[in-house]
Structures are given as structure tokens and as C-alpha cells.
Amino acid sequence: MTRPAEKILDHAALFREPEYRKMLGEKKINFESPHLDQVASDQRDFTKTWKYRDKNLAREALVVNPAKACQPLGAVFAAAGFERTMSFVHGSQGCAAYYRSHLSRHFKEPSSLVSSSMTEDAAVFGGLKNMVDGLANAYKLYDPKMIAVSTSCMAEVIGDDLHGFIENARNEGSVPADFDVPYAHTPAFVGSHVDGYDSMVKGVLEHFWAGKERSENPYSINIIPGFDGFCVGNIRELKRLLTLMDVSYAFISDASDQFDTPSDGEFRMYDGGTKLDDVKAALNSGTTVSLQHYNTRRTLEYCKEVGQETASFHYPLGVQGTDEFLMKISQISGKTISETIRLERGRLIDAMADSQSWLHGKKYAIYGDPDFVYAIARFIMETGGEPTHCLATNGTLAWESEMKELLASSPFGEDAQVWAGKDLWAMRSLLFTEPVDLLIGNSYGKYLERDAETPLIRLTFPIFDRHHHHRFPLMGYVGGLRVLTAILDKIFDKLDHETMKLGATDFSYDLTR
């Protein structure tokens, strides 16, 4: 197995070498206690049946590969969207490492955060000392303008009081008395990353707005993007559209630059983000708009409490989704939708018409966050496709009802099914018993693609095994064109793969499609 340095193999080639095949084979026989091949094959076949599907969908006490993450991840992502903000997780280092790695693997960028490094003693006696020392170290070492505190499971199970701990840390001089330390309780054992995002954004707004007088500017708009793995491309595209309309706006939690720093010789621990002065001024905006309703329910309620109008959308993508968003912005701001934007809308519709024969009647399975699934299902029906399976592990009964109403509005949604609270192991059963043409989701779907041979289109967080998708928008008419192209590329790639066999299927291996 020893090789000279110039002949080192990549792991994909290395483990195909005879000595490694032998080693792995012996490991399986001697240490894995495998079933006989026929027994394993019979069990695999059983998991593809309707009988197994009924058992699988009836599961209540077990979750297998849920299409969601835990609350603190959402809080960390939200904090990254504010100016020079260091995210501080009150919990163990292991939890913090998970959030960092999840974000950095998706965005291919460093994701900075610190933890209070709670261990066994803190689990017994509480984490106050960890908070006092941790805030002092974060403030001195990383020079933030704000530290945003969230919690992991350990701190929540023992009932640590963030507000009290932060005030104690101030009294002991960990941070200056006037230094901004908003916080959110984000227990990882309930809810999901969208709830953590919601709690952190609300915590930041409460920190800056509570007790302040409001001087309303009715035509100014706050926009909350929601937890969005495509924030880099989406926020920049939306800013372009709003600038074309000459709208006065502020994005609340803008992570587009933080997760897309340039390589120019300068390390940026912090980049971009919503300026803290703009967060303070956002109290005076007439309306707060959410781009993802199920990401921001508590925040929108708080905005109503301070006297603002609110509006929410389900990830404005495609024709109708973008139409609704822009018309609402126009209504609030009093600004007209520019001719440039109108032409972009027409180009998207023209592209959909050009490809209609390839899109009509295609069946899809979609999974992800509730707003994303809603948006993709609506766009699929606009193209003449059928969103056969719509699954959101963190979907609520309200989401399920909204989805059914959406699907009932089009003949292409007649046979669609909505699966709130189900996981990707349930999706596997659905793909085997009611097959579809395409699967839309994140990188975790590649195992479904392998098992069920359903081509996967990666359009939502996290995308670990492909690079740079997040740099291009999905929202708006331009984003819709990007989604349309991704779908068509997968359709044509599959068709080419099925028709390339020389002399057997290549009579349909067409140059022009």
C-alpha cells in the first residue's frame, strides 16, 4: 500500500485498488456480522413495497434522516447577517463545531462563532462562569460590535437564564455596560433551524427597539429574508430589483457578503451585514416584510406589537411568487415596477414556453423547509409539472393546509400529496411506491437518488457535494430562469444517459432537443 509521493491516489481511486478491496471485504466478514446476501437482498426488496410503506409512514417514535436542522444553527445563521457580530453559543464546543461546519461546508467560507465551552461541571452547577469568561474572551479577542447569544441543549435542559447571566457578566466587566448582547433561547430538542432563526432575529429587534419611541416613515420597508442557503445570490438579486424600483428598504439580517468574501489578501472575520444603526432605524419603518413566513412568525408578531404593518411570502420564486412580492412592494412604497423588471418577467415566461414540451407532465418529489417547498411546488405547476410529493419535516398543520389549497388551485396539483412532519426515510418509500421523474431538495437526497434512481436537483440548504450554487439567485424572475435551467439540464442529462448506448438506444441521442 506504500506509494511514492508523486503517485498518491485520490480516495475515490485508492479504495478501488485490489489490496483495499480485499481489506474491506475481510472487515465485512470478520467484524460486521453481516446477514447472508440473500437475506439482505430480500429485506431491501421488502422496503420498496406498499406494505413496508404503510409501516414506515406510521412511525411516531423514530425519525430517520429528517429534512431539518436544530434551532441553534438558525440562530447562528441569523446572527451572521448583522454588522461585525460574533455568534456566541451557550453550550458545548461540540455543538458549536457542528453549526460552524454545516455553514462552512455549504458556503465554502469560514463560519466564525464561539461557545461557552460547557462541560460536565457546568451541566451540574450551571454555566454562569462559562458565560462570564466566554463573553470576556470573545469581546477582547475578536473585536465585535455585537455578540449574539443563543443556547444549545445542555444550557436549556438545566435551565440557564441568559438574561440574568449576561447581566452578571456585564457587572463583572466581561463587556462594557453599553455593549450590545442580544440573546435568544434556542433549545435544540424542539422546533428546527427556522425557529432558531426566528427567535434570534426577534431577539435582536427587541434588544434595539424595546422601550424606544417610534417615528413612522410609512414608505420605508424592512425585509427579513429568512433562513436561506441561497442568501448570497438571492439578497443581491432582490436589492437590484428594489433599487430599480427606487424603494427605501433595509434588509434585517443580510448575510450575503459574510458568506461570500473575496480572496484579495485580506482576511475578513466580519463582512457586510445589516448595520446596527440601520437596525435601530428600522423601528420607524412603516412595514416589515418577510420573504419566508414560516421562518419569521414570532418576529412578525413583535413587529405588529410595535405598530408596524406586516406582510409575508413563501419564498418569492417563479412568476406568481415574484409578481405577488413586487406588487406588494409597489403598493407599500408607492413606487412603480420598472420596465426593466417587466421585460425580465416576459423573458422568464418566454423561456418556460420554449421548453414546454419537455416540462409538461413531469412528476416531482420536493422536500425542504415549508416556504421553499411551497414556492417550488407553485413554480413546478407553472411549468406544467406535477408536484406529486411535497414533504417538510418541519411543516406544521397550517402549512399542510396552505399547501393543499395551493395544489387544489391547479389541475397539475390534483394528484399531489402533502407530507408534514415526515422524514427522508419516508420519502424513500414514496419514491419506490409512487415513482416520480425528478427529486428536488438538498445534498442529503443523493442517497435517495442512488436507491430509487430518481435524479436529484439540488436547490436548497445544505448543498455539500456541489460548489457555488448559492452564489446565484433562485428568487425573482432571474432566479426563476436559473431554476428552470437546472430542471431542464437534469431532464436532458437523464435523456442523454438513457439514449447513448451505441447501436441500441442512440437513435434518440439527439444533437438538438
Which CATH class of the largest domain applies here? Alpha Beta
Which fold name corresponds to the CATH topology of the largest domain?
Rossmann fold
Main-sheet strand order equals: 10-9-8-11-12
Strand content: 5-15%
Which whole number gives the mean pLDDT?
96
Sheet having the most strands: 5 strands, parallel
Radius of gyration over all CA atoms, rounded: 25 Å
CATH superfamily of the largest domain: Nitrogenase molybdenum iron protein domain
Indicate the CATH architecture of the largest domain.
3-Layer(aba) Sandwich
Q: How many structural domains in the coordinates?
A: 3
- What separation lies between the terminal Cα atoms? 48 Å
Q: What structural class do you assign from the helix and strand content? A: alpha/beta
* Helix-residue proportion: 40-55%
Query: Tally of extended strands?
Result: 12
**Weakly predicted, low-confidence segments:** none
What spatial form do the alpha-carbon principal axes imply? globular
Tally of DSSP helical segments: 22
Structure commentary:
This protein has 513 residues and is an alpha/beta fold. The protein folds into 3 domains: 71-209, Nitrogenase molybdenum iron protein domain (Rossmann fold, 3-Layer(aba) Sandwich), CATH 3.40.50; 217-337, Nitrogenase molybdenum iron protein domain (Rossmann fold, 3-Layer(aba) Sandwich); 340-499, Nitrogenase molybdenum iron protein domain (Rossmann fold), CATH 3.40.50. It contains 22 helices and 12 strands. The chain has helices at 11-14, 18-31, 37-46, 50-57, 71-79, 93-107, 120-125, 128-142, 153-158, 162-171, 193-209, 231-244, 276-281, 297-305, 318-333, 339-354, 356-359, 370-382, 397-408, 424-433, 446-452, 476-498; strands at 85-90, 113-115, 146-151, 217-224, 249-251, 285-290, 309-312, 363-367, 386-392, 417-420, 438-441, 456-458. The strands form 3 sheets. It has a 5-stranded parallel beta sheet with strand order 10-9-8-11-12, sandwiched between helices. Helix 5 (71-79) packs across helix 11. It is globular, with a radius of gyration of 25 Å. Tetramer of two alpha and two beta chains. Forms complex with the iron protein (nitrogenase component 2). Its EC number is 1.18.6.1.
